[in-house]
Amino acid sequence: MGGIKSFIIGLFLGGNIGAILLLWLCCASTWIPPEQYPLLSLIGLAFPVILLVNVLYVFFWLIFKARYVWITLLGLLVVGSYIYDYCPVNLQREHPRNALKVISFNVGGMKGESSQVALLQYVKEMNADIFCLQELVPSWIRRSDVRLMMDSLQYHSIQEGSECILTRLPVIGEAIHVDFPTRSNNKSMGCRLTYLGDTILVVNNHLESNALSDDDKSEYKEMIKDPHKEKVKEGSRHLAGKLGDAVIYRGPQADSLAALVKANGEHDIFLCGDFNDTPISYVYQKLARITRSAYRDSGRGIGISYNQRGFPVRIDHIFVSKDWRSSQTRIVNKLEVSDHYPIVTYLHKKHQ
Q1: Does residue 247 contact residue 333 with C-beta atoms inside 8 Å?
Q2: Which of 6, 41, 15 is nearest to 244 (CA)?
Q3: Which strands make up the sheet holding 171-178, listed edge to edge?
Q4: 194, 170 Cβ separation under 8 angstroms
Q5: Helix and strand counts by DSSP (H, E) for the chain
Q6: Is 169:129 a contact under the CB 8 Å cutoff?
Q7: Residue 228 burial (CB < 10 Å; 0-12/13-18/19+)?
Q8: SS3 assignment, position 287
Q9: 292: three-class secondary structure by DSSP
């Protein structure tokens, strides 16, 4: 009997070690440019599932073999920083009185009059110092009610295609375009603003979309509901191909943004937008290593920003220069205007 028990414990121990190695592989993949190994870069999407398996092992060992729990805990500790990126736990603290309220929102093309009116109302209510909008209908900014709102809030608008920055801070010069490879209309654009005697480069980003059609999303949801072997096999191959094609472009796009941050030197920079990648990705980690992630610093929980059931991910981010701090960062998950939710934060200099 003892031999059978030892054999079963051995199986679970092997499974635990395998789960730890997979968790480490997810994190290690964020260092590898995705254009080199596109499918490997997708393993980060499995991070929450693999993390959950490891957490369940903690409880398993506590119940059946407490002296083995250190194996799982050590495995989790090694990648603790990545876990915190994925699901930070911060106390809510008040922001300084002169902090900048910054919002990034992929408005999803705003199909229909009701969505355009709802966006206008949201902009009025939030009264942010800086709004970074992606996938905006270019004609929205020319609506008479929008122009009245902009005049009343003293907003300047800087627009390039479907990307737009609204701000009440003084604007220096013209819009700035960030060149990078893309297969579609995705882009990064920005402008320089003045604030308390400093210059801030604000960059509004919409990195390469995964281009999943409504049929693709429906197929994925069906696989979850009815995981038939052949259906999962064919569907997974199709989705992996699409995701892999997109991530090949996002890697160099992230490299271009990282080069922009370094070229900006000691000047302040905000990178906002829809990066189409989760915190366990090359794109996010490449930028987070040279800036600060607002959500990591002052957000709480997973923070799902993609407004589609079956896709519980945070792909909208705000990164800031390392001498800036954030307060009260949150995802506003009650606004049903788009297939994304806005990310809101308050930003202030470290010494303020």
Answers
A1: no
A2: 41
A3: 171-178, 187-195, 198-206, 268-274, 316-320, 292-293
A4: yes
A5: 11, 12
A6: yes
A7: exposed
A8: helix
A9: strand
Instruction: Find how far residue 45's CA is from the centre of its chain.
Output: 12
Per-residue pLDDT of the chain (352 residues; tens, 9 = 90+): 567 878 888 899 999 999 999 999 999 999 999 999 988 999 999 999 999 999 999 999 999 999 999 999 999 999 999 999 999 999 888 888 889 999 999 998 777 788 888 899 999 999 999 999 999 988 888 899 999 999 999 999 999 989 999 999 999 988 899 989 888 888 999 999 999 888 999 999 999 988 665 555 555 445 444 454 554 455 456 577 778 888 999 999 999 999 999 998 878 999 999 999 999 999 999 999 999 999 999 999 999 999 777 778 999 999 999 999 999 999 998 877 888 999 999 999 987 6
H or E stretch including 21?
A: helix 2-28
User: Would you say 190 and 179 are in contact if contact means Cβ atoms under 8 Å apart?
Assistant: no
Element (H, E) at 9: helix 2-28
Q: N- to C-terminal Cα distance for the chain?
A: 66
Alpha carbon distance 256, 271 (integer Å): 12
Which three-class secondary structure string do you get for 46-91?
HHHHHHHHHHHHHHHHHHHCHHHHHHHHHHHHHCHHHHHHHCCCCC
How many CA atoms within 13 Å lie on the side-chain side of 244? Answer: 12
Is the Cβ–Cβ distance between 91 and 338 less than 8 Å? Answer: no
DSSP 118: H
Query: CB under 8 Å to 309, separation ≥6 — which residues?
Result: 221
Check residue 257 and give left, alpha or beta (phi > 0: left; psi -120 to 50: alpha): alpha
| CA angle, 236 then 287 then 341, to 5° | 60
Rg of the chain, C-alpha, whole Å: 22
> What CA–CA distance (Å, rounded) separates 303 from 234?
31
The structure tokens 């051995």 sit at 10
Alpha-carbon distance 240 to 277, whole Å? 14
What does the alpha-carbon distance between residue 62 and residue 323 come to, in Å, rounded to a whole number?
42
Cβ(329)–Cβ(347) below 8 Å = no
